Amino acid sequence: MQVTLKLYASLSDYLPDEAKRTNEWPMDVPEGTTVGDMIARHQLPERLVHLVLVNGHFIPPGSRASRVLAADDVLAIWPPVAGG
């Protein structure tokens, strides 16, 4: 099934070069893939995975390992933001 992974700010370094311009990476993943699987598969450091949304809905840290993705879902991840 196809899902889209969007990584923002410093996490965009984990995207392939061709996806860095748009911060968007459409990809095929197996049925049953979870948000946690995607984070692990792309070796995103847990300390940098702060705000996680699926189709615009917040996924709290305790639900990420069990939240199964569906076809055409958009998984967006932001690191913690600092500054002012």
From TrEMBL:
Q: Which residues form a coiled coil?
A: none
Q: Which InterPro entries match?
A: Beta-grasp_dom_sf, Mopterin_synth/thiamin_S_b, ThiS/MoaD-like
Q: Which Pfam families match?
A: ThiS (PF02597)
Q: Which domain of life is it from?
A: Bacteria
UniProt protein name = ThiamineS protein
- Taxonomy-wise, where does this protein's organism fall, top ranks first? Bacteria, Pseudomonadati, Pseudomonadota, Betaproteobacteria, Nitrosomonadales
